[in-house]
Amino acid sequence: MTPLERVSSIKVKLGLLVAASALVAAVVASLGRVAGVSPWISIPVTIGIALAVTQLLAAGMTSPLRQMTLAARRMARGDYSVSVPVGGADEVGQLGRAFNTMASDLGAVDRQRRDLVANVSHELRTPLAALTVVLENLVDGVGSDPAALQTALGQAERLSRLVEDLLDLARVDAGKAPLSTASVELGPLLEACVAEVRANGRPVSYEIDVPAALVVDADADRLSQLVVNLLDNASRHSPRGGVVTVRAGLDEPDGYHLEVLDSGPGVPVADRGRVFEPFGTLSASAEGGGTGLGLAIARWVTDLHGGSIAFLDPLPGAGAGAAGAAGAAGARVRVDLPLRPPARTVASHLTPTHEESQMPTTPPAAEPAEPAKPAEPTPTTTPADAKADATPSVLDDIFGTYWPDSGVVGRFGLFIGAVVAGLLGGLLIPDRNAGLGTVVVMLAAGGVVMVAGRERRGWFPIVCYVLFALLSSVAVFRDAEWIVALCLLTAVAVLLCASTRAKTLLGIMLTGISWPLAGLRGIPWLGRTLTSVSGKGHGAAVARTTALSLLGLVIFGLLFTTADAVLGSWVDQFVPDVRPDTFAARIFMTVFVFGVVLAAAYLAVNPPRIDRNERTSQPVANRYEWLAPVGVVVGVFAAFLVAQATAVFGGEDYLRKTTGLTYAEYVHQGFGQLTVATALTLLVIWAAARKAPVETAADRLWLRVALGLLAAEALVVVGSALYRMHLYQEAYGFTQLRMLVDVFEAWLGLLVIAGLVAAVTGTAIGGGLWLGRFALVSGAVALLGIAAINPDAWIAEHNVTRYNETGKIDTQFLRGLSDDAVPALEKLPEDLQRCVLGPNDRDGDWLEWNLGRHRADGLTPGYNPPIGSEADPAAVCPDEPRYID
């Protein structure tokens, strides 16, 4: 049962859905704000919980519509044995029930259509075969006696009767059989009908029991057709010497009835509804040679008059003549008609509706009939069918062919792994600095994603997994938050690229975008994962087991930890102090880590199509179309390099004379533009390599020369940018940002070389997909290199050296360095040490241990000057900080 199943209006459901989601989002956001949780964590968690609540409340609201779409597609293929599960009382539930009724009715119509074709073919074949034999004999001059001709005439008349019956059915069903009512005296009409049937020569006798002067309003022709068909059916099923009785009677106040009784075998109760269907006879063809349409026509004539028809139990003592002696029960069919038919001309349907087929035909009040047997239930969609026709999600329309879901099988193990990673994140990360606990969480999360990956072979996934482990471990070696954060983000990037098997730079960027989108795209997969457990009957068992296990852990854990001090001390080492002020933060972190790990796992299970539809670019027709733009860029680069050379050889006097800038100001002015120009050079090389024709040796030569010259100039620009940064650092000191810019510019130079190699060797066209992976791996290795040299210590060392040489130092900047810099900063004079080192407050537990803090703690034992004392850094250099930047 879904949460909103009892609500009877889809509008009310939507209102409750919006209100509940908004309320939950507001409450969660307020808790995050009060607990001081970072917006980077609280906002995704708030959105995720609101979406979860929406998904929970919306369960079952639209699934019948999607299932109806699938069922309609199957019905279009001719499969009417479908139904959709409905339980709601709203408009969608009503539509689902109407859809099931329609599917059942169409199934009955289709089944009867097939039966009609088969039976008509059979009924036509028999007389046609006999007639053909007679005609063949006549052609051969054999059997031209009157008996043979009489046989042929009989078969032709049988064909004629069948065709006339079929035409009657067609006219009735099309509504083209209006009643032409008039006053009809029932006695003479029944006598005429008996006389017509008696002409068939069957060895039975007929009896008529009708009140004198019983006059009704009816269509005499149609009523005669009704009675004749009933009498013909009764005579064919009666044994030799049997009695067929037709009788009529008045039913007060405004109706009358007709009954036809025979002394045949009767109609079983289970078959009394089916015999009125076209060709629904039980054994008519075998026993009496009928068309199988007489009772169907009788029913439709009855419907035209606004009456009802049904087989009833025989009267007590039924059975006459030989049949009666044999104990035959006989058949009894009753027609109830109004004295004045309703003013209508539209006939009933070819087949009874689903509701009609489920209801017994109403017998007269005086003699109740046996209840009709309920129809067999329509088969529902089997699990195999459901798997074959996976229910499409509305998200399929959003992501389309870029990211098909196609019913990816749920994996409950990955869900449990994400839960464990989330719990570790909630226990180990909040209220702690990055350290050993962070590495544990990263490795646990990475393990889940690696297990989820479909392909773990090949050099690229292995390299990415190794880089992920190395980058994650930086948190246990370095205290500098900036390099730890960059390494952790890069670790996530290489892990995700291993999952999506990204090859190009565009594919790598799309992978980064796909990760947060996977939290939305994976909602149907998460539903299938949970259903895979609950659908096997294990859902309640898993929930019960989890609850009991947690209850036992809490109760007995509290008892034993409070009873034994040693056990309590052990537990304190591993279990965090869950205080009320940190409880909300831990919950937020748990949900956040669980969500991002589960999204990454889905990305590995079902990666999007990011590099699978690579198109080969069509080269331009003329060489100048690519060579001219590249030549312009080469010329601009050449002009810049000439200006650089002039500035270098002209010296600072020339710069002041022409620009009014010092050399330090000059080298700092355009560094950002040079970095952008280097990055754009990669774009120019890529575009030229794709558009330049390479059919002839001359084309390839021009490509290599032009791109080689452009790459050489770009490398000179890289060298110039690095030299500018070196001069700027010598003048203004060393910082983390300046170090990163240096490494980034050098990395761009490396990519320029790689791009040139790909272009001139032709691998950038069509198959040169290694360049994106090379950029990713080389960037990750560059970050590992920065972490390996201990960047904060390296920066501190160079600033100390600069101070020793120039006496210039930026104390405010050095105070912001991490504990990694403490060994280098202790080389400063004691007064500057007190100014830049700060108090020793490294009292975290073992889960936030890392090598940088451990070394700093060993080098500055007990250095913790009280605030406001002479040793307090704020008191040492409050007015005259020795910095110049």
Automatic annotation (TrEMBL):
Domain Histidine kinase: 119-341
GO molecular function, one term: phosphorelay sensor kinase activity
Top-level lineage group: Bacteria
Pfam families named among the record's database cross-references: DUF4153, HAMP, HATPase_c, HisKA
Region (Disordered): 349-388, 864-885
Biased composition (Low complexity): 378-388
Alphabetical list of PROSITE patterns matching this protein: HAMP, HIS_KIN
Keyword Phosphoprotein: yes
Location of this chain's protein in the cell: Cell membrane
Gene3D superfamilies: 1.10.287.130, 6.10.340.10, Histidine kinase-like ATPase, C-terminal domain
Cofactor field: Mg(2+); Mn(2+)
Annotated protein name in UniProt: Signal transduction histidine-protein kinase/phosphatase MprB
Species this chain originates from: Nocardioides luteus
